[in-house]
TrEMBL record:
GO MF annotations in UniProt: isomerase activity
Superkingdom, natural source: Bacteria
CDD domains linked to this entry: crotonase-like
Pfam families reported for this sequence: ECH_1
Keywords per UniProt: Isomerase
Name listed for the protein in its UniProt record: Enoyl-CoA hydratase/isomerase family protein
Organism (species): Aurantiacibacter rhizosphaerae
């Protein structure tokens, strides 16, 4: 993709999507939105791509949706049923994109520096891995405008951080720094700013080396198990492992491991 507000490049098996609108605090507009969808479709369809990394230029990861752009719901969209339809699949709705991120059986990584707010955080909660620079901070300011986070910032945040911290971010309108975000389950790891890019790249390289069928099965099993009781979650594990056990990927890797352990060449 040409240079602009959103850039896509491929480095080996990693597709790197960069939000590049720092003069507007990387707020999402239609061009950025279409770029996110383009990167997502390429991840899903291109066998040469194993990992999607979403990052941003500038001091902000993103301030969220640009309310002056085409992504904001129309002012006359006041009918509840029409609004629900827009929320589910309209231009600017995070629901369809977030659901797609969760459904794709490949690693999706987001790398946050500085503030990650509103819709940017809601979309990030759909990723498999969230990595933070030590200067990152997180917030969901919708209640200050008379709303609530309605694109995963309520439902997904409750699953990740629990009702206690969802109240803190969503109702008290409090922001959390990177350390607290890791403690409550919003981010997985934190790096010093001077090492951030190198650490993120190293993590993505490691993800690209993971056997793809195993990752896809594991991702689905985790998602299903989160909403099941213990007995049914065990059944999900059995089904996932059973599907992998006869596959070429696992057989070849197990054979190679046995040879290494036995000292064969």
């Amino acid at each position: 993709m040409a240079q602009g507000k959103f850039e896509i490049e491929q480095r080996d098996a990693i597709l790197i999507a960069t939000i590049n609108r720092p003069e507007k605090l990387n707020a999402f507009d239609l061009e950025i939105w279409e770029g996110l969808w383009a990167a997502t479709r390429q991840l899903a369809s291109d066998d040469s791509v194993q990992v999607l990394l979403v990052k941003a230029e500038g001091k902000y990861f993103s301030s969220g949706i640009d309310l002056t752009s085409e992504l904001a719901p129309a002012a006359d969209l006041t009918d509840p049923s029409k609004f629900r339809q827009w929320y589910r699949a309209g231009t600017g709705s995070l629901h369809a994109l977030g659901d797609e991120w969760e459904a794709i059986g490949k690693p999706i990584v987001v790398a946050h520096q500085g503030p990650c707010l509103g819709g940017a955080l809601e979309l990030s909660l759909c990723a498999d891995f969230r990595l933070a620079s030590r200067d990152a901070r997180y917030g969901l300011p919708e209640i200050a405008f008379g709303g609530i986070p309605g694109s995963g910032g309520t439902s997904r945040l409750v699953r990740l951080a629990g009702p206690h911290w969802a109240r803190w971010l969503n109702l008290a309108n409090k922001q959390v720094d990177a350390e607290l975000a890791r403690t409550i389950g919003i981010v997985h790891d934190i790096y010093d700013p001077e090492n951030f890019t190198a650490e993120v790249d190293s993590f993505c390289d490691a993800m690209a080396a993971i056997p793809p069928e195993a990752f896809a099965a594991g991702k689905l099993a985790i998602e299903l198990s989160a909403d099941l009781d213990k007995a049914q979650a065990r059944n999900v594990e059995r089904l996932a492992v059973s599907a992998l056990i006869g596959g070429k990927e696992l057989r070849e890797m197990m054979s190679a491991m046995k040879k290494r352990l036995s000292g064969e060449r």
